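Quick start: read one record
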Amino acid sequence: MDNMRREILELRRELIRVEHRLKMLERELLGYSKVDEIRSELKKEFPLLEFDGDLLELVGRLRCNPVERDREVIREAVEWLIE
């Protein structure tokens, strides 16, 4: 009985690791296309500047909101990236 419980715990841990890895890969896949799109738009307007990919990924996920909500929206975006 203890062996079965141990095996179940190990399988649950492995499942959590696999689900986390899947989420990270999906996030990367979605992020790259948006980041490349945003970077190309910015390069047209500012050809001599270099842009940070992580920052562009964060900006690419933000909705258009009034300035008063900036703090809240950025906090949500950071929390989403941390998950």
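The mean pLDDT is 79.
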